[in-house]
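Supplementary Data S3. Sequence and structure tokens for construct A.
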Amino acid sequence: MEAKQIVKTETTYPPIQKKSVKGTKKTKKKPNIKLGALAIVIAILFLSPFYIVLTNSFKTQKGIFLNVMSLPFGEYFSSSNYVEAFHELNFIRSFMNSLFITVSSTIIIIIFASMAAWMLVRTKTKLSTFLFFLFAVAMLIPFQSVMLPLVRIMGILGFLNPYGLVFMYLGFGSSLSIILYHGFIKNIPVELEEAAVIDGCNKLQTFWYIVFPLLKPITVTVSILNVMWIWNDFLLPQLVINRPEWHTIPLRMFYFFGQYSRKWHLALAGLVIAMIPIIIFYFFAQKHIIKGVTDGSSK
């Protein structure tokens, strides 16, 4: 028998490089103490007016003059400021006026702005392009340059009342709303509308049943922006409304604060009452505000 020689071949492998442990360790970032301190100082500066108004609204007149920055305590504490200010402010009537004007104006702006933006997007003509830029340019015109002619014309037409005020808010709020809707509608596929037309829908049905439900995110953003603007507006109601029974909360607060400017405990209590509705609305709507801003930027 022939002996078979088995040749053993040794395979050589490259040496394994050991990774340094120092590179794999995650270094913890040290907190920036200076930046944190600056943020705290800025927060205190922003919150200090709210603290002064809130604490002094629970004090008596003497307690405010003794120490503005102290907390209300002892004989200087008074909760009756809010009861008296609530009645003197005629808050229920003013609240209902503001609610009617704000809700009516916002609904009308949403309806007209969404329909106008949809037609401007889907109508590819020079006229639609010109109208869109006209709405954009209208945002650059300051209100102070048109307020006197506007009030004169509305007075001739008999529109110096809450209904005329709603009509004016439609004119001033449409530009921004149309621009927001215009950018959002561009991303809606045209095929959805073509399918609705094939199924027998006319233009109005196509908009209300197909397009408008898809506009919910931007509609929430438009409604929040207009609600906060119209609710807090003071200048236009002051020019238009000329009867005390039509006063909105900002307008009523202006006259109330002037009437009780020497009675600071009542004036500050009325100021807090006037701020409560919009603060509650903002806390409930802040999630939608942030979401709407991010959606609008991505669109």
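Construct B, processed identically:
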Amino acid sequence: MSAIDTLPPLRDVIAQHGLSARKALGQNFLLDLNLTSKIARAAGDLTGADVLEIGPGPGGLTRGLLAEGARHVLAVEKDARCLPALDEIAQAYPGRLTVLNADALQIDPLAHLTPPIKVVANLPYNVGTELLIRWLTPANWPPAWDSLTLMFQREVAERIVAQPGSKAYGRLALLAQWRCDARMVMHLPPSAFTPPPKVSSAVVHITALPEPRYPADPAILERLVAKAFNQRRKMLRAALKGLAPDLEDRLIAAGIQPTDRAETVGLEQFCALARSLQP
């Protein structure tokens, strides 16, 4: 028996169902149920919330979420081999787990959930960043979700919480911190996973703010930031060339020197520049 419920240990589940992790699906299974419960607790109080989990695999984190009291878990799993193991969890927690055999990039899982909604996932490495950007850039704000508690490669996690002046600072930090609070809450070594990945991992907790920190048009800000960091070694007067005929004046008005590089410019200044570029 495992420490958190009456289901078998995950190693036994994986052996029983022949669930070897597939590199093509970005799979690395986290087998320590104490760790998966710790990740679930990092998401805060789950008792009154619906939880979206992407890539549950054999269900280690799924069990953690249910054991920590999640009202309902929607698990989206692309790998059909994992469905029998997840079905056993659904039977152990009647009425509280729904499993969708689908590609998370091809559906809108939030449509299947009732607010308040928390997203908690050990994201497959190959789709993690794309999913995060989608969650950070919905058509309307505030978003359907209250918080995101997500595991990434440590390098990606550092990019989300990075501050100006650091090598990790860039588009991801600005997108996350413009409308959210983001902080790193856990570090996990490669040895925590089966098979062990070549990199360390980290869990980031992101909470949606009711309003952006500074006013700006989302489309203009995203385009501006992407252009600025696409050539991050260039001075901004060169990297942003063509955005406006009087670009240098607009940069100065936003508190940015034309000779500054993107990695030294803060969120408030980028938002000021985005406002000045609005038609």
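The longest strand covers residues 180-188. The first helix runs from residue 10 to 17.
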